[in-house]
Each structure stands twice: as C-alpha cells, then as structure tokens.
Amino acid sequence: MTGVIFDIKRYSIHDGPGIRTTIFLKGCPLSCWWCHNPESQSAFSEVIYRPDRCIGCGACEAVCPVGAIALTQRGYVADPDRCTGCGECARVCPAEAREMIGRVVNVEDILKEIEKDVLFFDESGGGVTFSGGEPLSQPGFLGEILKACRERDIHTVVDTCGFAPREAFEKIEPFVRLFLFDLKIMDPEIHRNFTSVSNELILSNLQWLSDQGAKVIIRIPVIPGVNDNEENMEATGKFLAGLPSRPEVNLLPYHASAREKYRRFGIPYRMADISPSSGERMKELSDRLAQFGLAVSTGG
C-alpha cells in the first residue's frame, strides 16, 4: 500500500512524549486561514516555483515531457492545465527554483525511516508521530503503518484535526497510543468561515474518542480576534469539562512563521495583520480554561 508524504522530521520534541520522528502526510479537508503547512493541503504531489531563485537556464522548459513550461515576464511558468506534476523540472533545476512537494512511498519505505530512530525512542520514551495535513485523509495507508508500529512496540501518536469519517477513527484507534486533537473554534458557522468546514463531525469524533477511553491531548491554536474571546473560551471549557476523560489542554500561540511559505507558493496570506498573543494574554486564557477543572499548558 502506498501513500503521499511531504516531509519527515527527526528529533522532534513537540509532537508527543520523548524524542520523536514525525511523518507528514499530504492532504487535508480543512483550509485554515492560519495553516502553517499550506503545502500539505493538496492530496497530490505538486511542484512549486520560486522565481527569485531562477537563473534563467531553461533546463525545466527543455525537460518537461508535456511542454507545460514557457518563459514569461514572471520567469519560467508552468501551465497548470497541462502540468502533470511529474517533477522532472524540479529534478534538473540547478538552482532549486523548482521543488517537488510530496512523494509516493509505501509502508516498507516509512518503516525503514522510523526504525532508524528506535534507539532514540527507547532512551527517551519517544516514538513516531503522524501529522500533516490530516493523516486520516489517507486512512488505509495510515492504518497499515500504525499496525506495523504496534507489532514492533513503537509508541504511536496521531496529530489530527478530527475531520474524518468515524469509521476511519474506529480502524486506527486500537493502534494509537496518543491523539493530539486540534480544537479550533466552537461555533460551527465561525468554524466554517475560518476553516471551510463545520465542526460538528470534529466534536462528534472527539466525544467518541473520549468515550472509548483513548488518550487525548487537546491542542488549541490561539488566533487573536478569531478564537480568543470569552464566548469561545467558555464554550470550549464547558465542552471539554463534560468529556469522560477530561483531557489535557495545550494552548498554542499563533505565530507568522509560515508567511514566507505562502509567498513562495503564491498563496495569499490572510492573517498578515494578526500579531501573536502576549505571554500575559496566554496566561489569562490558560487560567480561564483551568477554571473548568482542566489541566492547561501553553506553548509547544
């Protein structure tokens, strides 16, 4: 079985306990305004072009098997209607002006990468984390890797936005030691406005995981002017306090580190006017959620 990934990050300490290897799967059903990995949203491999790196050699135009690339005032631009995403242009570009985002791998490929770090897992209590994108966008591929990791006694974490069919969660839940579950906005219409989907399925899946006794840590990206208001914090606190497991909560301050990615990919960055929350404001929000009997931390 094969899947599409776009990155592997080793020695991660923010994606679960211990030292971890994080596998980033491509594809996400959400399009959050503040997404830090815009290259993850498409489910397919794709080529990005950075004209500021282009040296005008024309190698990409010459090698393109479908003649999709032509010299324009903006550099060597690919016609999106003709480009097949084969990646040949990125392969021959001497200046790395073209880059292939996403590659097809099989379960064996991923296991070989994971097993390179088993020594670090054993010494630190770490393991492997599957992130994205949304890893449950590739449920069959994800499930096979999780089963193989469980057979090898490798600790597994799935970082999810929660928007996936219940059947997908049912299939992987027995093989996941910890879910890092993103919770963004409680009002369904406001959630739809900023992420493109309602949160009803997300909340339903979170309730189900809690009912099953799954280990869950809630991660809330704090976006000033979007979800840091009193109404949303109160609704969040009430919902989480009503879950059987009463999960831990991690508040993640917004930062604009992905701004450069959007520029490179030619995607408008809709959060350009947003400034990160101060440490004092993050503490206020943490204290507010703690009033519901929740264990709350910030950062990470």
Automatic annotation (TrEMBL):
Keyword Glycoprotein: no
Necessary cofactors: [4Fe-4S] cluster
Pfam families linked to this entry: Fer4 (PF00037), Radical_SAM (PF04055)
Domain of life of the source: Bacteria
InterPro entries reported for this sequence: 4Fe4S_Fe-S-bd, 4Fe4S_Fe_S_CS, Aldolase_TIM, BssD/PflA/YjjW, Organic_radical-activating, Organic_radical_activase, Radical_activat_CS, rSAM
Positions of the 4Fe-4S ferredoxin-type domain: 45-74, 76-103
GO MF term list: 4 iron, 4 sulfur cluster binding; lyase activity; metal ion binding; oxidoreductase activity
Keywords linked to the UniProt accession: 4Fe-4S, Iron, Iron-sulfur, Lyase, Metal-binding, Oxidoreductase, Pyruvate, S-adenosyl-L-methionine
UniProt domain Radical SAM core: residue ranges: 14-295
Family assignment from sequence similarity: Belongs to the organic radical-activating enzymes family.
Protein name stated in the entry: Putative pyruvate formate-lyase
UniProt source species: bacterium enrichment culture
